[in-house]
């Protein structure tokens, strides 16, 4: 599967579609999910063109991988939900068909602001 340049997150990265931005640096962009499933529901995506976590693990540079992982904690802290200042949160990444991935650009969901409940429904 090739990366789809017209997926919705690629358009957000190019500034063609607006988003409610939370954080941005050289490696990541984070913004609020358009259809929140919990009190806080953010998304974080790498700036590079990666379809999912498998693609990212295989093809991203170490700098990109480190930047992405650190980005998750930076965003959680900015949202006031990180475990050092508050009560924590959940990250989740859907990967391909059985994972239920809808947008084919790697993203982690960040859920918090309340007890987010059972791990898998
Ligand atoms: P997936 O099912 O691929 O893991 O999740 C895709 C997520 O992207 C969904 O939670 C959906 O609400 C969110 N989403 C889809 N289109 C947009 C959009 O245009 N803007 C934002 N902010 N989120 C979107």
What attributes does this structure have?
121 residues, HIT family, subunit A, binds guanosine-5'-monophosphate, five-stranded antiparallel beta sheet, alpha+beta, globular, single chain
Describe the overall structure.
This protein is of the alpha+beta class and 121 residues long. It contains four helices and five strands; from the N terminus they run H-E-E-E-H-H-E-H-E. The protein has one domain: HIT family, subunit A (2-Layer Sandwich). A five-stranded antiparallel β-sheet has the order 1-2-3-5-4, with helices on one face. The relative contact order is 0.22. The mean pLDDT is 97. The protein binds guanosine-5'-monophosphate. The site of guanosine-5'-monophosphate (5GP) has 12 residues, from loops.
Topology readout:
Blueprint: H1 8-13, E1 21-24, E2 28-32, E3 40-46, H2 53-59, H3 62-79, E4 89-92, H4 96-99, E5 108-112
Antiparallel strand pairs: 1-2, 2-3, 3-5, 4-5
Bound molecules: guanosine-5'-monophosphate.
- From the N-terminal CA to the C-terminal CA, the straight-line distance is 28 Å
Radius of gyration: 14 Å
Total separate domains:
1
**Adjacency order of strands in the biggest sheet:** 1-2-3-5-4
Q: What's the name of the CATH homologous superfamily? A: HIT-like
Q: Give the percentage of residues in beta strands.
A: 15-25%
- Tell me the CATH topology: HIT family, subunit A
């Amino acid at each position: 599967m090739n990366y789809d340049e017209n997926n919705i997150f690629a358009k957000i990265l190019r500034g063609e579609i607006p988003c409610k931005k939370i954080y941005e640096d050289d490696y990541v962009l984070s913004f609020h999910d358009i259809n929140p499933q919990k009190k806080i529901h953010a998304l974080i995506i790498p700036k590079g063109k990666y379809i999912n976590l498998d693609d990212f693990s295989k093809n991203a540079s170490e700098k990109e991988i480190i930047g992405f992982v650190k980005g998750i904690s930076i965003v959680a802290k900015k949202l006031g939900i990180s475990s050092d200042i508050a009560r924590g949160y959940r990250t989740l990444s859907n990967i391909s068909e059985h994972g239920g991935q809808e947008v084919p650009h790697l993203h982690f969901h960040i859920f918090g602001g309340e007890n987010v409940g059972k791990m898998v429904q």
